[in-house]
Amino acid sequence: MITEANDEGRMLSLQNLFEHIHENHKIIKSLFVAESMEMFRVKAVAYWRGAIQDFLESRQSEKRNMANKSSKANKSSESGKDSDVDEPVDIVIPADILANHIAMTLINMIELCMGKNLKYTAKEMDGFFQVMINPLLKGYL
After folding, report:
1. What single string gives the DSSP state of each residue in 73-88?
2. N or C, which terminus of the chain has less Cβ within 10 Å?
3. Would residue 134 count as lying in a domain?
4. Range of the domain at 42
């Protein structure tokens, strides 16, 4: 369900998920109006949070490995040089916090989609999601 970046610049593609929601909107909508809504919401957030966190951590691990290789190459070429300039410190959002934010955004979008009686297409919903999430992911990954 979670796919990596593609030619269209999407970091996480969820168009298939939104298509599934459109195809099964009556069943899914019943989950959002039933007494079981809160249970469904908790389970859905937990599922998506875990999947997104795994994705983020694997990509972050790849990024660290590449940075370590690059850093070693730079250190060997810069040996003997002194620098009085402090390197900027990057503040990195922990994967669990970012994953929770993305999962909650996704669930809120699904709820909105159900409440608007599928006013937006799956492609539009995926596009909205991309606009909100991609800047965060680009900064993280």
Report:
1. HHHHHSTT----SPPP
2. N
3. yes
4. 35-62+94-141
